[in-house]
Amino acid sequence: MSSNETPRGPVDSSRIPRYAGPATFARLPRLDEVGRADVAVVGVPFDSGVSYRPGARFGGNAIREASRLLRPYNPAQDASPFALAQVADGGDIAVNPFNINEAVETIEAAADDLLGTGARLMTLGGDHTIALPLLRSVAKKHGPVALLHFDAHLDTWDTYFGAEYTHGTPFRRAVEEGIVDTEALSHVGTRGPLYGKRDLEEDRRLGFGIVTSSDVLRRGVDETVDALRQRIGDRPLYVSVDIDVLDPAHAPGTGTPEAGGMTSRELLEILRGLAGLNLVGGDVVEVAPAYDHADITSVAASHVAYDLISLFTLDSAGPREEQT
């Protein structure tokens, strides 16, 4: 596909039922069918970095299946994302499940290749370990990026059982490697017990600000969004969403659930409040379908990815008044 061609969108559900055909994200074309994409949806079926319940290696395909019901117009953002830019499913990055270090290197190299085509990545995990190589790749292109991290947990611990690369350590590594902008780091939705008060002190030393799930409840979405936008400014922004940021009532299918989380409505509204920021990459991770029921978690994750993709494409299309 050339840059002048009309984007190829999803399969027409009036001709082929939603439950039929290949399960690409939102029934979009595969990347090899269009040649290039402005936004590539890519899976990383990897969960060797988890510390409790495994199963997130199956998350990407579960999200794809749940995304069959997504429709091409997003009224919350007044956008038709698949018409504004070419969005395509890039398949999965196949990684070694027995060697975390090698897997991290493979993800980084694959992300480098995809970003080199001009695409921005919407990545479906997989566990949160994958955020580190994705941030490395994005930083090569944009320099240190602002990070907006939605999660029940801090993910800034040092090691687990002596391992530096796990789903609980990616953002400490990112700070140590200088690939994130320490003036613009935010956790949103954190809650639950910690190992000690020192966890918070070390997290603060790394440069993170924290908006807990209780803060979102008390302050509301609008105040939360205003504070985040002020912290981010015009910096290139990477958004990483661990689905366990949602309360288990809204996302039971995850590896480390914590009570007292955000609702899916709150998460989606905060994401929509990021419109106009310089979003350069995003991921949705830790969907573990073996613990899900009625696809609650996968449906929530598919909508999170859809709204992030909408933000990507609105940015690609320019000011709203110029859209057709």
What would a concise description of this structure say?
With 324 residues, the protein is an alpha/beta fold.
Structure characteristics:
8-stranded parallel beta sheet; 35% helix; 8 strands; 11 helices; 324 residues; alpha/beta; 16% strand; single chain
Overview of this protein structure:
By secondary structure, this protein is α/β, with parallel strands linked by helices. Helix content is 35%, strand content 16%. The protein has an eight-stranded parallel sheet, sandwiched between helices. Helix 4 runs parallel beside helix 5 (131-142), helix 8 packs across helix 9 (221-232) and helix 10 packs parallel to helix 11 (296-317). It is globular.
Topology:
Blueprint lengths: L30 H4 L4 E6 L14 H8 L14 H4 L2 E6 L7 H17 L3 E6 L5 H12 L2 E6 L19 H7 L3 E11 L6 H10 L1 E5 H7 L1 H12 L4 E6 L21 H9 L6 E7 L10 H22 L7
Parallel strand pairs: 1-2, 1-3, 3-8, 4-5, 4-7, 5-6, 7-8
Helix pairs in contact: 2-11, 4-5, 5-6, 8-9, 9-10, 10-11
